[in-house]
């Protein structure tokens, strides 16, 4: 199932849980091992895979262990500076290096 804006929050959580479970199994990790590596409880991993609400830090820890943390960069990219901000910063760019000052 694709995650789209039309899905309910519960459906998105369920889909994420299933994807995490599939990834864990592909990496041949038990729930217990994943929990230990992520520093969370076994019940927390089970809840996450069952699509139950969880804390964001828990998801980050599990994604890190599964090697999926970089996906957050694609999911929530850093917004580019606004055109006004770019103009303001452009005047402050360094154009040359200064000479080192000698100690007297």
Uncertain segments are none
Largest sheet: none
Mean pLDDT: 90
Report how far the terminal alpha carbons are from each other. 71 Å
Write a brief caption for the model.
This protein has 104 residues and is an all-alpha fold. It has helices spanning 9-26, 31-38, 42-49, 56-66, 71-75, 83-90. It has a domain at 9-75: 434 Repressor (Amino-terminal Domain), CATH 1.10.260.
Short descriptors:
single chain; 0% strand
Characterize the structure shown:
- There is one protein chain.
- This protein has 104 residues and is mainly alpha-helical.
- The protein has a domain at 9-75: lambda repressor-like DNA-binding domains (434 Repressor (Amino-terminal Domain)).
- It has six helices and no strands.
- It has helices spanning 9-26, 31-38, 42-49, 56-66, 71-75, 83-90.
- Helix 2 packs across helix 3 and helix 2 (31-38) packs across helix 4.
- The chain is elongated.
- The mean pLDDT is 90.
Topology summary:
Elements: H1 9-26, H2 31-38, H3 42-49, H4 56-66, H5 71-75, H6 83-90
Helix pairs in contact: 2-3, 2-4
